[in-house]
Amino acid sequence: MYRRALSTTAATAAILLAPTAALAYTGDDYDADVPGSVAQGVPFDLTLEGPNDNALFGLTIASANVPDSAIEIAGSQSLQKATVNGVSVFEVTLHEEAVYEVTGVNAAGDVVLESEVVVGDPTDDDAAAGDEPAGGTLPDTGSSSTPLVIGSAILLAAGAGVLAFARRQVRA
């Protein structure tokens, strides 16, 4: 009788504590809204989002094939901007056709965004040199589903073990 109660309690605790552990994660989650391609000379918004305690974001855009004067982030080529509830919106204008490298950093100086923006024909010199256009690819978020799969497998195995133990106790 005590074994059944113990196994039921263990199964209930595993079910209740699994979501609690997942929701307790307070890691630095950053998100960015970066278009893959844009029109030449047309302003667009680039949004960086992170934890509320992140005071500012820095954004730098560069391309080896164009002068700095062809890149405007609110009037400059690189800009630091304060956040409002962890969000910064940068107005960007790219004046020449090229593939541009976009880099975003948080208040601590850690890189939180590395992406590409293509202006004009993606088959120009940058693409011909081996760089892939950013229009058809997803950004690399650094996230992996491996921990979720491993955690699910452990919970599934634990549940099967508890079920087998409980069935054996009922037959005895």
Keywords, separated by commas or semicolons:
alpha+beta; elongated; 3 helices; four-stranded antiparallel beta sheet; five-stranded mixed beta sheet; 9 strands
Tell me the number of helical segments per DSSP (H or I, 4 or more residues long): 3
The residue ranges in which pLDDT falls below 50 over 5 or more consecutive positions are 20-27, 124-134
Cα distance spanning the termini = 11 Å
- The overall pLDDT average reads 75
Q: Biggest sheet: strands side by side, in what order?
A: 2-9-8-4-6
The strand count comes to 9
How helical, in percent, are the residues? 25-40%
Note the overall shape.
Answer: elongated
**Sheet/helix structural class:** alpha+beta
Strand content: 25-35%
Radius of gyration: 25 Å
Report the biggest beta sheet as strand number plus sense, adding barrel if it closes: 5 strands, mixed
Characterization of the model:
The strands form 2 sheets. Strands 2-9-8-4-6 form a 5-stranded mixed beta sheet. A 4-stranded antiparallel beta sheet has the order 1-3-7-5, with no helix packed on it. The radius of gyration is 25 Å and the shape is elongated. It has helices at 2-23, 125-128, 146-171, and strands at residues 31-33, 37-38, 44-49, 56-62, 71-73, 78-82, 87-94, 98-105, 111-119. The protein is an alpha+beta fold and 172 residues long. Residues 20-27 and 124-134 have low confidence and may be disordered. α1 packs antiparallel against α3 (146-171). Helices cover 30% and strands 30% of the residues.
